[in-house]
Amino acid sequence: MLKKVVVVFVLIVGGFLAFAATQPGTYHVERSADIEAPAAIVFAELDDFHNWQAWSPWEKMDPAMKKTFEGPAGQVGSSYAWEGNKDVGKGRMSVTAVEAPRRIEYKLEFIEPFAAVASNRFSLAGETTQKVTWSMDGDKSFPAKVMGIFMDMDAAIGKDFEAGLLALKSVSETKAKAAAEEAARTQAEAEAAAQAEAAAAAEAEAAAKIAAEAEAAKGKGKGKRKAK
Hints:
CATH architecture of the domain at 25-171: 2-Layer Sandwich
Helix content: 40-55%
Structural class: alpha+beta
């Protein structure tokens, strides 16, 4: 009887592992959001790793995690390494391609609690409103295939992307509004200065005209006195 139980168990486990082996060997997760801000403002939040703290969903998992930045922001090769609690683990992200302000790609290396490599990409399309698309692609190891049977990777990663895009939208739109207000204020000040300058010039011209007329009248008066 025990032998039969063992055989059945082995068959079940073998069947499960065989089924896991047939699962897709790659994954793709993608989410998009509309952000009412110029591309340059949105892109500045993406190409400088220092700015990720304001919107990245992973940053909020461990605000005290250790971070290391290398290389000039927005350049291929610049990187960001992190080490934190069990929720964020340890890893590194580096810029692999940049087409400012429309596209930026990263290599994402997870070191702990598991080793994996993925590619991350942001693309922007639009004028005053940007359609920002965040995607991730990677290969599935066999353990990942097994885990994928019980966990929807698209849903698990997708919810983080959605939260991140929502925060990115808030940050970018707030900065865009502030920039627009500053531009309007600067323009108003420039127009006021131009008007003041024009008024001063007109006043100076009028004063010069009055002075010239007075001088001319004075000259005529002298001429009349000489004639007498």
